[in-house]
Amino acid sequence: MTYVDYAATGQEALSRIAQADDLETLERLRVAFLGKQGSISGLLKTLGSMTSEQRQSEGPKIHALREQVTSALAGRKAELEQAELEARLATETLDLSLPAPEARLGSVHPVSQVMDELAEIFADMGFAVATGPEIEDDWHNFTALNMPESHPARAMHDTFYFPDPADGGGRMLLRTHTSPVQVRTMVSQGAPVRIIAPGRVYRSDSDATHTPMFHQVEGLVIDRGIHLGHLKWTLETFLKAFFEREDIVLRLRPSYFPFTEPSVEADVGFAHENGRRVLGGSGDEPGHGWMELLGSGMVNRRVIEMSGLDPDEWQGFAFGVGVDRLAMLKYGMDDLRAFFDGDVRWLRHYGFSPFDQPTLSAGVGARA
Ligand code: 2U9
User: Fold this and answer.
1) pTM for the full predicted model
2) From ligand 1's centre to the CA of 333, what distance in Å?
3) Residue 251 CA, ligand 1 centroid: distance in Å
4) Contacts of 75 by beta carbon, 8 Å cutoff, 6+ apart
5) 363, 341, 277: which is closest to 109 by C-alpha?
6) Ligand 1: residue whose CA is nearest its atom 20
7) How many angstroms separate the CA atoms of 234 and 226, rounded?
8) What φ, ψ does residue 212 adopt, rounded to 5°?
9) pLDDT value at position 6?
10) Which of 49-53, 127-131, 267-271 has the lowest mean pLDDT?
11) Contact 215, 198 (CB under 8 A)
12) CA of 297 to the centre of ligand 1 (A)
């Protein structure tokens, strides 16, 4: 057995630990003494090849040496950590006069922006905003709108059906237009009525220009002596305010809807500017054209009757238009599906400032 001077070994280790002046050096020392290949670990291993008398006399000395070095390492580590903290506290400063980092701002979805603009424009003409359920019953969505069961127009309104828990054999559906809101308003409030009904509607349709969920705004006016002239003026005033152009020209074309009679489709004139369609002017000018924009008509007297009003006393007009389509035309988006992708890059490009509230006095258009 070779003689080891434990006291000298301990003294040397303690002095090297005391001289370590950063945590990295200290960690290297710990590995050198106590690591797997460390010098003190090596001494411990020699116990295995000793006689039991040798082990009895040497064992406690080696263990004591290990204890001594372990606690010296821990003590020096605490000192160095404390010194590091004090150095940081002495040098790091917090300047409370610096401006706070800017909070990230959300943006308004173009559909919401356009709905807000429509509410503002129609409020100025005395229209209130009405809302209703998206899950409807068959009567409010179809029958009351002069589309009885087996009516062929129901085929264009194919939607999503599910059982009505309140009525064993009955079924509910996702509304195919916001018209049931107008029916509910006539039934509950009676005449006169002057409302717009914006909201989500559903149809079993999906391609580049149709999404199974889209947004509509419908308008309804019921009063005494209402005629097609009121409808035309209202649509013209609305479209001029919405597109912020005085030269919007409307063309009314005969059409058919079960809930209006007569029914008219409204086209707007557009011109070609740099390969783009720009609304304004008559569509009959050379190089111009007409674009179908919305449907409307005088409310069918059977609809007025089914909502509990006397059609000989009360008449009205109604119209319907796609909000997504209005947003695309005004702000230049070209793919309807992007509206519902939830891509924040698209929203950042086309989204609107929450602080830019549409008002008629300041202009209903977003200054993008
Ligand atoms: C009641 C009476 C009548 C609402 C109307 C249209 C014509 C129409 C379409 C435009 C594009 C739907 O979003 S779209 O696909 N709408 O053409 N809507 S008249 O008529 C009503 C509504 C309620 C009580």
Assistant:
1) 0.74
2) 24
3) 17
4) none
5) 341
6) 318
7) 12
8) -65, -20
9) 84
10) 49-53
11) yes
12) 8
